[in-house]
Amino acid sequence: RANVCPTREFLARGRQEMQIKSCWHCLAENVSTAHMIGCCPAGQDARIKRHNQICELLANEARKKEWVVFQETQLKDKHLELYKPDSIFVKGDQAFVVDVTVRYESKPASLANVAAEKAKKYEHLKDRVQELTSANTIKFMGFPLGARGKWYHGNYELLTELGLSTSRREKVARSLSRRALFTSVDNVHIFASQ
């Protein structure tokens, strides 16, 4: 969490010309904690597993509140390009298109920026989502979690819209944040052990 993992980048601070900073698994020039947790191919399977676990936990919360959940539905835009939003939650004439991501929190606004980026990614598919769900009100949302356990406050909006009580929202937030943090630690172990 403190970003002091002894990576090659960290160990090279102050002596750039003398230290090797490149990744021993891929061709990346700098091995940082963010690289180990979020980019390196060595941890890709673990990252996919983490992502799917978080999506499933979120989907289960929605199902408990009687939302219909479409997971990784394939939608084509007008240029026939394929998109797969993580989840589409539907209840009555309301739908939420949600894209989950776990990102390394490098700046205070990192998670807010990625939430906006993820929401915008699928907005052009509004007509396709409407055809699939028959919903009149469609909202596109990013659902970012910090790789070091930071909770993005904007995620409460989705949990509130799904109908979770205040206490349940807090429990879900803690659970998802812990899952992101612990699986990030697992990614570091996988990276270091190979």
TrEMBL record:
It comes from the Eukaryota. This is PO24 protein.
